[in-house]
Each structure stands twice: as C-alpha cells, then as structure tokens.
Amino acid sequence: MPWYALLVLLVGVERLAELVVARRNTRWSMARGGLVYGRRHYPWMVALHTGLLAGCLLEVYAVGRLFVPALGWPMLALVLASQALRWWCVRALGPRWNTQVIVVPGLPAVRSGPYRLGWLRHPNYVAVVVEGIALPLVHTAWVTALVFTVANAVLLGVRIRCENAALATLPT
C-alpha cells in the first residue's frame, strides 16, 4: 500500500503544479483584460478534487482494499495517460490554460494540440474523467471512483456550460 499512497501524493503534487501554472496564467490573462466566468462553482471543483485524493487513501486504508493486478495495472496506465493528456492541453493552451474559466477578449479560440481535432471541445475534461475513475481503481477504491464520478458529472455539466458560454464570446 505505501506505493499507492506515493502515487496519490504524486498526483497531489501535480495538482499543486497546476495551481502554480494557473496562478501565473491568471496574471497573464488579467493583464490583458481577462474576464473570469463561473466563480461560484470553482470552490466546489477544488473541494471535489481534494476529496478525490483523500477518498482514495481513506478508502484503501480504512476499508482495506486490496491491489488486484488485473485491474490495478491497466488503471495505472490510464492515470498516466490522463496526466499526459492534461499536460498536452496545458501546453497547447499556453498562458491561456487555467483551472478557472478566464477568457481574454479578442483572442481567438485555440486550435492546436488536442484542440485541433475539432470533435472533442474539452479534452482536458476527458483527462479529469479518466483520472477520477482510474486513480481510485488502481487500488480497488470503487466507492471513491463512483462517488467522484457522479459528483464530477454534475459539476462538469455546470462547468462545461459556463466554459461554452465564455468561449462563445471569442472571435472565430
């Protein structure tokens, strides 16, 4: 189990790295007249993602979930793939990537990296969904995976509507 705690800790460190990038990018956006959308749902996202990490550890240690290799190894591969997709999104969006919905008026939508595919408008959220299912299931924390997935579906519905409205303000 210590290696699973290390994995969850590393994902937590990755989240902190995201916040550092987001803070820098927020300054960049605001210096260019950036507008923040969806302030009310953002604290719920922070709480949900913190809860995911805590739930993974709590369920595994409190309930004694076992590592099942046939499930754990493929889920670990999905966790790593979701991280790769997330950072591809961060790279493609550059200073416009953020954990909040911030739009700089006048800048066109990004059409590079995973955003150039066209059929997937929010690839970063694919990474979030995959990670939210896979990270707990690496060590069979199925209750955490289920609770996070349901809560995340509700929250992503709000977030995607907010982001789509914000993106609709951009020139094409």
Sequence-ordered SSE layout with sheet pairings:
Elements: H1 2-31, E1 35-37, H2 42-63, H3 69-93, E2 101-103, H4 123-137, H5 142-167
Antiparallel strand pairs: 1-2
Helix pairs in contact: 1-2, 2-5, 3-4, 4-5
Q: Care to describe what's here?
A:
The chain has helices at about 1-30, 40-65, 70-95, 125-135, 140-165; strands spanning about 35, 100-105. Helix content is about 70%, strand content about 5%. It has a two-stranded antiparallel ribbon with strand order 1-2. The protein contains five helices and two strands. The longest helix is centred in the N-terminal third of the chain and has 30 residues, at about 1-30. By secondary structure, it is mainly α. It has one domain (about 1-165): Four Helix Bundle (Hemerythrin (Met), subunit A) (Up-down Bundle), CATH 1.20.120.1630.
Record keyword descriptors for this entry:
172 residues; mainly alpha; Four Helix Bundle (Hemerythrin (Met), subunit A); two-stranded antiparallel sheet; 5 helices; 2 strands
Count of folded domains = 1
- Runs in which pLDDT lies below 50 for 5 or more consecutive residues are none
Beta-strand proportion: under 5%
Neighbour order of strands in the largest sheet: 1-2
Q: Quick one: biggest sheet? A: 2 strands, antiparallel
- Gross morphology is elongated
Please give the CATH class: Mainly Alpha
Task: Please provide the ordered H/E string of secondary-structure elements.
Answer: HEHHEHH
Mean pLDDT: 95
Count of individual beta strands: 2
Find the structural class using helix and strand composition.
mainly alpha
Tell me the helix content: 55-70%
Our Rg estimate from Cα atoms comes to 17 Å
- In the CATH hierarchy, the third-tier topology is known as Four Helix Bundle (Hemerythrin (Met), subunit A)
CATH architecture: Up-down Bundle
